[in-house]
Write a structure and sequence with these properties.
Strand order of the largest sheet: 2-1-3-4-5-10
Order of helices and strands: HHHHEHEHEHEEHEHHEHEEHEE
CATH superfamily of the largest domain: Response regulator
Shape: elongated
Oligomer: single chain
Number of strands: 11
Structural class: alpha/beta
Distance between the termini: 77 Å
Organism: Nonomuraea harbinensis
Domain HTH lacI-type: 1-53
CATH topology of the largest domain: Rossmann fold
GO molecular function: DNA binding
Largest sheet: 6 strands, parallel
Pfam families: LacI (PF00356), Peripla_BP_3 (PF13377)
Number of domains: 3
CATH architecture of the largest domain: 3-Layer(aba) Sandwich
CATH class of the largest domain: Alpha Beta
Keywords: DNA-binding, Transcription, Transcription regulation
């Protein structure tokens, strides 16, 4: 930094202000310092900076099953929001979110000197693990339950399911069948709850849900079962991958979508607009989830851990060609 100051003809403090984006630096001075930084190839010593500021500018993320679209998109949103805020991210991916695995992951991240931790906790079994976080650790759970001293950022899964179900009812369908996600997932519970609530509020019959596991294969099996049932005109699948399986099974059984059966998914994965037909679905704003996670963590870092927040991100809804009015159903 002293070399940069000499090269630019300014003080050490001015270089520090430029590096920290302080507003009280004249534009021409800032430009001169930045040119000197480029010429000299200067890089800040993050370890030395952490000793002075008591912050590493590193955040830890503990996640489960990053191959699934939701968790993977959540992590990407968190990473982008962290970089915008001037932080880097260290990620630990676990096979299971049990207490011992989460504690080991937190210990590993603590050894790296992270300033705070985000735990992507979509399964109910992760609750005890969240409660085991070391006291005073700035932490946020994504899609977790509000338990103990951990803040939560989540998407309103139940409202997303209500949007999907109400859309189909408003098209004139007498009821809506549902393909669920796997047990123990909070998203499964929320979407099941919203679907059932929308049907009960409308005074419509509630069919027995069909089990699924987020995969197209599970949706395909459910689609074959639905094609064999009498009176099925509308289906809400708990994610887009299972909706894809439903569409394939119905097509093979000679059932036309949406002429005979309307199908709605959940997630709005990039491929859903290219399904045959393009899929009507619930959209989750993972970028907003990431921004909220970082904002909550930074507030904890400024005010001290111990304050709990619950931020709920509203879902969106995208209407495409996989749904139609029930009047078109013969």
């Amino acid at each position: 930094m002293a070399d940069v100051a000499r090269e630019a003809g300014v003080s050490h403090q001015t270089v520090s202000r430029v590096l920290n984006d302080h507003p009280n630096v004249r534009p021409d001075t800032r430009a001169r310092v930045e040119e000197a930084i480029t010429r000299l190839g200067y890089r800040r010593n993050l370890a030395a900076r952490a000793l002075v500021t008591k912050r590493s500018r590193m955040l830890g993320v503990v996640s489960f099953d990053t191959t699934l679209y939701g968790p993977a998109s959540t992590i990407y949103g968190i990473e982008q929001a962290a970089r915008t805020a001037g932080y880097f991210v260290s990620i630990v991916s676990l096979k299971t979110l049990d207490v011992d695995s989460v504690r080991d992951a937190i210990d590993y991240l603590s050894e790296q000197g992270v300033d705070g931790v985000v735990v992507v906790a979509p399964r109910r079994s992760a609750g005890p693990a969240l409660e085991s976080l070391p006291s005073g650790t700035p932490a946020v759970a994504v899609e977790g339950t509000l338990r103990g001293d951990v803040s939560v950022v989540c998407i309103d899964q139940a409202e997303g399911a209500r949007l999907a179900t109400r859309h189909l009812l408003e098209l004139g369908h007498r009821t809506v069948h549902h393909v669920t996600g796997p047990p123990d997932w909070l998203e499964t519970e929320g979407r099941l709850e919203g679907w059932r609530a929308a049907l009960e509020e409308a005074g419509r019959p509630v069919p027995e849900p069909l089990p699924g596991d987020w995969s197209p294969h599970a949706g395909y099996a459910a689609g074959r079962s639905l094609a064999a049932m009498d009176g099925v005109t509308a289906v809400f699948a708990a994610n887009d991958q299972m909706a894809l399986g439903v569409l394939r099974a119905l097509s093979e059984e000679g059932v036309k979508v949406p002429d005979q059966i309307s199908v709605v998914g959940f997630d709005d994965i990039p491929e859903s607009a290219f399904f045959s037909p393009p899929l009507t679905t619930v959209r989750q704003d993972f970028d907003q989830v990431g921004r909220h996670c970082i904002e909550v963590l930074l507030r904890q870092l400024d005010a001290g851990a111990g304050t709990c927040e619950r931020l709920v991100v509203p879902p969106g809804f995208v209407v495409r060609s996989s749904t139609a009015a029930a009047a078109r159903v013969p």
